[in-house]
Fold this sequence. Notes:
This protein is about 60% helix and about 5% strand. With about 450 residues, the protein is mainly alpha-helical.
Amino acid sequence: MGIPGKDPALSAIHVSIDFDRRLWREDLDGSRAHVRMLGERGVLAPEEVQTILAGLDRVAAEIEAGTFPWREAYEDVHLNIERRLTELVGPVGGKLHTGRSRNDQVATDLRLWTVRRLAELDREVAALGTQLLAQAHAAFERRTVLPFYTHLQRAQPVLLAHHLLAHLEALGRDRERLAAARERAAECPLGAGAGAGSGFPVDPARSAELLGFRRACRNSLDAVSARDFALETLAALSILMVHLSRLAEELILWSSQEFGFVTLGDAVTTGSSIMPQKRNPDGAELVRGKTGRVFGALQALLVANKALPLAYNKDLQEDKEALFDAVDTARLSLRVLTASLREAHFHDERMREAAEARAGYANATELADYLAARGMPFREAHAAVRALVEQARAEGKRLQDLGLERLRAISPVVDDDVLACLETEAALARRAAPMGTAPERVREALAEARARWSDGD
Ligand code: ARG
């Protein structure tokens, strides 16, 4: 097939209908707005506008029904729709393209598509956030405790709710980034023509309004050649995927037998074809694995845009597959993690064991803080506790098992209440400064997060 009269290789590299037909709704909406605007400006007669709008509706019906004849000979979604329109309504269909070029048309379509998908993605992020919040709330009710990790070494006890809310913070920033990308994508290129502007008395502001854009682009050359809205979207999605991959990685680690902190549900795990005991976290692993595709899309489009002279160049056709794949990947990843969290069963006892384990010394900071709060310079306290931890480790004991006398021997400032400070609940309660993991702070943080996430923003 391909384009008649063209080398098959040129056809193969040039024809975009296989992927850009995804823009058909946006292409039809853009054409409807354009033709209405032309009617309002007296460029087209009212009957012509009506005929073309009715024809575009027939095109839409054919595409919906799967009967639309997509033809490679017509290259892309724009020409396919325009040619079919003319077949359906006659030569008046050829008036649709008055005062327009495929250059401003494709930029309009892709911006419209991006704005719409970003709105949908925001709802998917909100759904994941809501699920995180539900698990955080439940974990708070149970006062589930685990150690947090630095360098993947047990550090200090925190509430599981506090840990889950940390992921929620990152998602909140992702939503801000998606909203900013949406804001900048919502500028309408229609009226820029091929790049110099239109020779007809078009009204770009009206086209923008009809399509729900924030405003029209200000410069015709920029309007047809700018793809930074797509780059910004891909950058926001890449950062979102960083966050999703971190959450996925924790679900993978935590569901291992080594951690045993969580069991993921049957609906989001798979068995092994040979090992009957396996419950593999494939969903989370694939989120982790697919993160690279989104980074790749950003990289590909950055390179395609780099040093491109103004204005439109065919290199820009490469924007679509990158953007489509990144949006699909992010959406799927969000859904997989939302389902995984919904199905997650956390093991409170295992987490507490890890927080209080003999070999963990997650309460060593408490003892150092205790000494510092009673006047010992923190550096000295740190050294003293470090030495004590070494001894305890050699004896296979926890700090509190060393007994009051040995703790009192550290310094005269040590009192009988020292043992109480080594308890996990005391460690949590002391972290009561803003941002901390003390139950009273986490209770506030949960209420605040619920208010922020409940109304979908
Ligand atoms: N399929 C093209 C694209 O995606 C549409 C614009 C074509 N413009 C042109 N001057 N050939 O970029």
